[in-house]
Amino acid sequence: MPNQFQQNSRSFSPYTPTPLHPYTLFSGWRLIKRLLPVLFAISLSTTVLLGNFTPATAQLPQSPRQEIRGVWLTNNDFNILRDRAKVQDTFAQLRRLNFNTVYPVVWNDGYAKYPSAVTQRMGIPFFFKGTEGQDIIADIVSQARRQGLLAIPWFEFGFMTPLTSELASQHPEWLTQKRDGTQTSISAAGEVAWLNPFRPEVQQFITDLVVEIISKYDADGIQFDDHMSLPVDFGYDKYTINLYTQETGNPPPPNPQAQAWMKWRADKITAFMVQLNQAVKAIKPRAIFSVSPNYYNFAYKFQLQDWLNWVRLGVVDELAVQVYRDDLQSFVSTIITPEIIESQKIIPTAIGIMTGLRNRPVSIQQIQSQVRAAQERGLGAVFFYYESLWDYGTEPVAQRQAGFQALFPNPVVRDTSQVIARKPSFDTISVPLYPRGASGYFLEVAVANGQPRRVLMDTGSAGLRVPREFLGNAPINSTGQIVREVSSDGTILEGEIVYTNLRISLIATEEPVPVQVVTSRQCTPQKPNCSAKSGTPFAGIIGVNYSERTLPYNPLRKLPGNLSNGFIVTGNRGSSNGSLILGLTAQNRAGFKIASLSQQPVINGIPGNRWDSRLNGVCLAIAASSMKNTCNARMVVDSGINSSLIDFKTASLMGKLKPGRLRPQNTVKLSIPQIFNYSITPGNTNGLNVWNVNVVPQLDQPVVVNSGIGFFNRYDVLFDPVNGRQGFRDRA
Questions:
Q1: Which of 385, 389, 388, 376 has the alpha carbon at shortest distance from 332?
Q2: How open is the CA angle 428-429-431, to the nearest 5 degrees?
Q3: Cβ atoms of residues 87 and 143 within 8 Å
Q4: Which is it for the CA torsion 164, 166, 171, 174, positive or negative?
């Protein structure tokens, strides 16, 4: 929100936006909110970008009684807000005109607008007492409640702060910078610095302020605007460079608009907003978590603010998109974007409308035309800002107030009892898989609210198994049940089954899932050189197979909504991340050739259907051997091992082959007619095409093949637990 109008603190500097600026308000008056980078074409194929999410469509628009009719109470309004009598008159007038929500500013310019213990501990002074020494915000909340208005404190500045503020001076290490070392940008509030949203200390400071507000006042929620973000040019401070390099293996690119670099920063801000929402809801579950951003295309590209993702994740309870335009056609074209239409099907949605500035009045006719355009499309309205509603117009006050009365002829009461926890509102989502040399694909998970950790994703086993140090501070239900799991390399994992929550990327399971807390690792006598012998700490395994033998079961079964109905693994060719696509849809099933699995008996405590993960009727041929396209093999598609295996029940089936590693002349061909036709030369390229043959008399089939992770370099693989099918899509 603009803030350059603060009395006695800033002068207003005229600015004419460039013709390309996507956030033009009124030509000749407003400073741009961000320095305008050159517009660029951005791919939407990564984790948090728009194209990666398919929204659920079975949701209806909100009831009309939830229409938002709000106004922001800014620094400019403090002369009114400091006086109890004026506040009473103000809110009575708003109620007579059938407004229903006020948004008083509580964090602005590096200062809290209320007596904050958080900022006082930091030595930041407090200047904003009322005329009778009262807490202005407490008075606003109290008087709003008397008038039946919702009061939602507005956390205006977000990560933004003046470079001259006590906050910036005391903690210069909290600030981020551009690639050239510049620490400030030009915003509507003038020249400002930016707190680094990726630093834990900054996140804790913001969280402490927000929690303090929610705890201190009987308010109806809290609102964050376009400053809960980071201009795309920032993030080149030492801390962020090291963090990005540590997590990706590469330093940030010099181009701040590089897709992966943008995605990484936007993801981090999104993850923080998820945590902030959890902190608010833990104190007041029905608090309205409100967001007032710029329109999506601008917000993501230039502010790294992926607010549509926030909506889809269930983080946002109310949306008010700032659309400050003097041209009606431009206004209308902005409020009918797909992102706004999608959001209003899920949550109360409004449009931020400019009602005037001291040096630039807006006519009541323009205000009415914009509000009616929004109302015709089922959208509410929030006005910037209170004093300009009728005091700055060219029309008499009575005429402007009558104009608002005509817009809102009947009262609309907002009911916070309808603010309930929402499930994510998309049917499918793609999360990254991180390759680690030849070890396999790693998926980022957080167990019991612990720090996100990358654990091996194994399509050949079932259940989450992690060391105790991966667990956070969320409730854990111990069962006392000790289980032993033997991996294919002979490692025995032993530990207790507990139930706790799990988050995969930003998606939480609907309920606690079973987790094996591994406290012991050892090798079987038959394979004394297993991974446990190396002494390397256990990195954790998430088994996503649907052929469970006992607890723990595949935790993907407990993802919300459609996300639990299957997944697709897209591997890589050794140079980039793969992806795990959660939730099968008609669109992402396209192009797969399908093979059926055999159903297994139900096991108590394991939800859903169980399937034998081994494909039937696989044809196997090994060059320079007697194995000539025999189609009686069974095959496991396994991302959990890099050394592929072919096990024979008897030595005679192997012919002239000897147990051990296959040589390059032993080309392996695997196929299911009309499904896939896979051929590979054994060797050691990237450590992914090592093939071993063994005699295993205990087999229940003549030949069993484990294709290993090399198979995923050639095929996308679909797992359908509902219908018991696997699909294969050739990427060659």
A1: 376
A2: 150
A3: yes
A4: negative
What are 692's strand-pairing partners? 645, 661
CA dist., res. 204 & res. 275, Å (int): 10
- Under 8 Å between Cβ of 32 and 17: yes
Tell me which residue has tokens 């446990």.
Answer: 532
pTM strictly above 0.70 = yes
Residues 6+ apart with CB under 8 A from 53: 308, 309, 312, 426, 428, 429
Q: What is the dihedral of CA 35, 41, 44, 50, to 10 degrees?
A: 50
Residue 463: φ, ψ to 5°: 110, 150
Q: Which of 605, 494, 496 is nearest to 558 (CA)?
A: 605
Confidence of residue 259 (pLDDT cuts 50, 70, 90): very high
Report the distance separating Cα 514 and Cα 604, nearest Å: 13
**Rounded CA gap, 540 and 466, in Å?**
4
Residue 656 and residue 658: Cα distance in Å, rounded? 6
**Pick from 299, 294, 291: nearest CA to 319:** 291
pLDDT digits (tens, 9 = 90+) for 446-455: 999 898 899 9
Is 573 or 717 the better-scoring residue by pLDDT?
A: 717
| Residue 59 neighbours by CB under 8 Å, 6+ apart | 345, 346, 425
The CA dihedral of 333, 334, 336, 340, to the nearest 10 degrees, is: 170
Q: What DSSP string describes 101-169? A: EEEEB-EETTEESS--HHHHHTT-----B-TTS-BHHHHHHHHHHHTT-EE--EE-STTEE-TTSHHHH
- Per-residue pLDDT reduced to its tens digit, 394-446: 899 999 999 999 999 999 999 898 888 888 888 999 998 988 766 789 999 99
Reported as type and span, the H/E element at residue 638 is: none
DSSP string of 312-370, one letter each residue = HTT--SEEEEE---S-HHHHHHHHTSHHHHHHHTTS-EEEEEE-EETTEE--HHHHHHH
How does pLDDT run across 140-155, given as a tens digit for each residue?
A: 999 999 999 999 999 9
C-alpha 139 chain-centroid distance: 36
Rg of the chain over CA atoms, in angstroms? 30
Paired tokens of 580:
């795990």
- At residue 209, does pLDDT exceed 80? yes
CA distance 698 to 558: 34
Contact 357/324 with Cβ under 8 angstroms? no
- Between 584 and 451, where is the model more confident? 584
Phi, psi (rounded to 5 degrees) for 279: -65, -40
Q: Specify the range with the lowest mean pLDDT, choosing from 206-220, 492-506, 565-579.
A: 565-579
